[in-house]
Amino acid sequence: MKYRSTRGQTDELPFMDAILTGQAPDGGLFLPSELPDFSDKLDSWRDLSYTELAFEIMSVFANDIPQDDLKEIIEKAYSTFRDDEITPLAPAGKNLILELFHGPTLAFKDVALQFLGRLFDYILEQRDLKLNILAATSGDTGSAAIYGLKDSERVHVFVMHPHNRTSKIQAMQMCTVNQKNIHNIAVEGSFDDCQGMMKDIFNQLDFKKQYDLGAVNSVNWGRLLAQTVYYFYAYFRATENNQQKLSFSVPTGNFGDIFAGYLAAKMGLPIKKLYLATNENDVLCRAFDTGIYKKGTVHHSVSPSMDIQLASNFERYLFYSCGQDATKLRSLMEEFKAKGELHYDISCELIEAKRCDTETTLATIKNYSEENDYVLDPHTATGVHVADLLAPDEQIVCLATAHSGKFPESIKLACGEVIGNHPILDALSEDDMKYQVADAHTETIKSIIVKTLEEA
Ligand SMILES: *Cc1c(COP(=O)(O)O)cnc(C)c1O
């Protein structure tokens, strides 16, 4: 299978090259040139284990990797999960909670980054290459990337997080991994500063090339591919036969997770609705209501991983909504760059979007804990609220993107006390933290990268 850029000005690449490249050189994002139709596979897939199913799906997309090697990559990736089902379903009230947080860092990003880590190892070994990952994080991506890559011999990981502005647990998760290839940079600035510097550095193509810089944010196709698997898996567990239709609710920030569901539907999974939930940062809700995608200012909420005003994967969705016309997509993105907004065709039956503000998020956590004895994390709670609002009489699969134990401050705000914590998080200690503080200047970050790699 070949991968093309949404902006149509990059040559098509095989899977492994698209993974290593991350963002396409023309500024676009990679998508398969053609999506497979899995409709007539569903019957034979219903009873597969998670990793067997992952192999069936991924082998179609990663057909430049020998099958036995791909199997081993998948097995290794998911051997770090603490639940045999990898992504089990838990009933809570009328809904089924799809628990995506049984990986090492207790958030759904592990599902993709454990896989991407093993995949990078494999490709780099095959090609005798090295890679230096630069990431900016508001919390969850950083720790998932660190845990996905900490044992990779050919990879160094530089993670910038805003100093003293992530949650304490998130900072401890990132900064207590004491491995030679992991470098935490606490930036005296905001998450936007970190992200801005990352983009700056990636745009300096000579520097990027000289230091073999790569990215693990959700523009990487490998992350989306790994995430389509749990939509299929959950469907088979939640339904009795393949004629049934099923709806999902998805807490959304960068539009990566929900886009994986959109792809699953396009590949023949009988999805009825995808309910898109945002917090106060509702740029996507407004887009799906009005057909105008317009950036606003970031509000800090109790679901910080969704405090995003620029959903990078939305470009992939737009590409399909323009009838896969790269020229049209390019002109939309130019319109956005020039005016800070773009207008597109919203006729989408599949996705319905609603926002859930902080007050409602906290109330949902409290209600679910009291009525269903289930503690939702604040991100998951936004999706559960939207599912209950838009489909009050229907069983919905609600994606649980993090374990409640990661956000004790919010759980206390909601319930009056900290409940639903996790022993792995309780065992973290501030004394073990290792990081360097840096000012928010691109040159400072570049010199840290250069110096670290010289000394490595
Ligand atoms: C990253 C993240 C999200 C948002 O996912 P997107 O793919 O960016 O839409 C939601 N919840 C949690 C806990 C996350 O870490």
UniProtKB/TrEMBL annotation:
Q: Which organism is it from?
A: Lentisphaera araneosa HTCC2155
What does this protein need as cofactor? pyridoxal 5'-phosphate
Cite the GO molecular-function annotations of the record.
Answer: pyridoxal phosphate binding; threonine synthase activity
Pfam family membership, one: PALP
CDD domains cross-referenced by the UniProt entry: Thr-synth_2 (cd01560)
Q: In which pathway does it act?
A: Amino-acid biosynthesis; L-threonine biosynthesis; L-threonine from L-aspartate: step 5/5
* Catalytic activity annotation: O-phospho-L-homoserine + H2O = L-threonine + phosphate
Protein name, UniProt field: Threonine synthase
Where is the PTM N6-(pyridoxal phosphate)lysine found along the chain?
109
Could you confirm whether the keyword Lyase appears in this record? yes
